[in-house]
Write a structure and sequence with these properties.
single chain; 460 residues; alpha/beta; N-utilizing Substance Protein B Homolog, Chain A; 8-stranded mixed beta sheet; 12 strands; binds S-adenosylmethionine
Length: 460
């Protein structure tokens, strides 16, 4: 079965002027996106920006999105293929040529674009966007890439390497991420967990409690999220939903909704609620509604002023914006909070499915660099909580170095007790973390959520 764009591209290989121009324009957009991502841009933002400036058809828009996201996601393995096929290091090639080769290899090996179209259109792209002098090298390398299929290349590249390295190549993850997953997952789930990072999630919406109900949101289509009481899965552009435009609903992964609701459901002392790492404000917007439903005062804090403005915007539909710019390690506020959310800065290894390029940008050393900040934020959260108040320590990462190890370091010298968090969500299967059964660890391959981690700590 051909995808629509495969048919369009097959047609474009024939001398039909309109079709051909359309396909080249799509690839030019993809190349511009690849360059911007190489310069440090986020694939989702770059693609959205570029597509908003074009008048591509919906077929071409889907083609560009799949091509750019795929090339970003598969980059490490595509690079290994290109180096093996060319017999030269990528650093010996012009960066623009590398972009063209990655996009070409993605089309040939991962998309259902016919080989002749993938090669010919890449050569044409190189000619128009870089210069005629590079067409020979692009043509020669892509022809060698096309000599094998994906499985054939994985076989070749894995020779003499461990099963572990083979898994990383085949699922397109750097070794350190495969290892981090391996440390916290049963062996028979490792491949499924990594493969789940290669599938874009269905958009998930969330209501702002007290401003609208989930039933009202469902009148715009979609299905209720299975675990969160506040969410709706809905294909299509969230901006098409009036409540999202009005700020009475937002876009939020179901796992994020679940960890916020845990802090709402747990038994905790009276007192104001706070989200002390609030930017850009997704969790704060849900938590504020839940606090209002119980008449609890709410505070959102964020270190960076520009991100604090995003929080204020996310909360604006509530009519008041209790947002402060503050360092939550040394906050000015005093310690009588009943519930505090510490959604700590982390590597984001749990959200790889929505950040295609992230796995090749993050480094193993990032985990160690963030660790002291995470410990200090959790300590300060507990310090500012009243007796029997609860802190939710949350990361969008399953890496034990920024989850279990951080909580252990804080518990070693803090007067707090771990709450059995999975017991609060008995209907969610397999939510216990392998590092401690009192922690929650969600997974894309188990729950179709981001890999959110949550520990609930009660101050003595
Ligand atoms: C993982 S993000 C939070 C995401 C947010 N809770 C949401 O759901 O939209 C972590 C946030 O903490 C902020 N941050 C980092 N260091 C901080 C500090 N010392 N005090 C307060 N906020 C900090 C970062 O700027 C970032 O916006």
């Amino acid at each position: 079965m051909c995808n629509n764009w495969t048919a369009a591209l097959s047609k474009s290989a024939k001398p039909v002027a309109g079709e051909r121009r359309r396909a080249i324009t799509a690839r030019q957009t993809a190349l511009a996106a690849a360059k911007a991502i190489r310069a440090g841009g986020y694939a989702n933002l770059v693609v959205a920006d570029l597509l908003s400036e074009t008048s591509l058809t919906s077929v071409d828009t889907r083609f560009v999105t799949e091509l750019v996201y795929g090339a970003a996601r598969h980059q490490g393995t595509l690079d290994a293929v290109i180096e093996a096929a060319s017999g030269r290091a990528l650093t010996s090639l012009q960066p623009g040529v590398v972009d063209v080769l990655r996009l070409g290899a993605e089309q040939i090996l991962k998309m259902r674009v016919p080989v002749h179209a993938g090669v010919a259109e890449s050569v044409e792209l190189a000619r128009t966007q870089i210069g005629a002098r590079v067409t020979g090298v692009v043509n020669a390398i892509l022809r060698r890439v096309a000599a094998r299929d994906w499985a054939g290349w994985i076989e070749v590249l894995s020779q003499g390497r461990s099963e572990f390295a083979r898994l990383g190549l085949d699922t397109c993850h750097p070794d350190w991420i495969v290892q981090a997953y391996q440390e916290v997952l049963p062996a028979d789930e490792l491949r499924a967990a990594l493969e789940a990072n290669n599938v874009a999630p269905t958009p998930t919406l969330v209501v702002r409690p007290t401003l609208m109900t989930r039933e009202e949101l469902l009148t715009h289509g979609g299905t209720p999220t299975p675990y969160s009481r506040w969410g709706v899965r809905r294909e299509g552009n969230p901006g098409d939903v009036p409540a999202v435009r009005q700020g009475r609903a937002g876009v939020q992964d179901e796992g994020s909704q679940m960890v916020v609701d845990l802090l709402n459901q747990v038994d905790a002392a009276e007192g104001p609620w706070a989200d002390v790492c609030a930017g850009p404000g997704g969790k704060a917007a849900l938590l504020m509604g839940l606090a209002r439903a119980r008449s609890a005062p709410f505070l959102a804090a964020e270190l960076h002023p520009h991100r604090a403005r995003l929080v204020a915007s996310a909360l604006s539909a509530y009519g008041s914006t209790p947002v402060v710019v503050a360092d939550a390690r040394t906050p000015a506020w005093c310690g009588d909070f009943g519930r505090i959310l510490v959604d700590a800065p982390c590597t984001g290894l749990g959200a790889l499915r929505r950040r295609p390029e992230a796995r090749w940008v993050k480094r193993a050393s990032d985990v160690a660099q963030l660790r002291q900040l995470q410990i200090d934020l959790l300590r300060a959260g507990l310090d500012r909580t009243t007796s029997s108040g609860v802190v939710a320590y949350v990361t969008c990462s399953p890496h034990r170095g920024e989850t279990a190890d951080v909580v252990a370091a804080v518990l070693a010298d803090q007067t707090a007790d771990l709450i059995n968090a999975p017991a609060l969500i008995p209907d969610v299967p397999m939510a216990r973390a392998s590092t401690d059964p009192r922690f929650i660890q969600l997974w894309p391959h188990r729950h179709d959520t981001d890999a959110m981690f949550c520990a609930l700590l009660r101050r003595r």
